[in-house]
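Suppose you are handed a protein chain with no further information: no name, no annotation, nothing but its sequence. What can you learn? This example shows the usual starting point.
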Amino acid sequence: MIRYKASIAAAFLFFLSPGLGLAHEYEAGGVTVAHPWARATPAGATVGAAYVEITAKDADTLVAASSPAAGSVEIHTHTMNDGVMKMRKIEKLGIPAGGSAVLKPSGDHIMLFDLKAPLKEGDLLPITLVFEKAGEVKIDATVEPVGAKGPHGLDQQPGHEDHSGHNQH
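A reasonable first move is to predict its three-dimensional structure. Written in structure tokens, the prediction is:
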């Protein structure tokens, strides 16, 4: 009887595991997008940000993003000038072959403007990322609490390498 229950539990976990993996990782055309998340926004806020790790088998470039939850979406970076951190739009973000680009707070990120409703903790935020070679990759970013530093209670965005050139402060 114990073996039977253990077998049922193992089978359940086997069938459940692929679904869990899909919730945090998306793949298309040699590009993998992992750990997508966004911060919840206060009532009345019209801007938000989303973060991911992007890896590429062959070099590729993130050239655009969109979301039905926002009027417009841009790829942004942070720069430090005379001790002042500034955010600015970038036209594209390169992902090196066999490497990754980590989009995280105080670094490269996806900026959402003219939000149609506040981003609420626990919701899923649909985003379409557009790559030069891989084409469109549709993802769902988990909305984490206001002030979160990473997905699922982590203190930073997971990632293998950080090519953003930004410090993690």
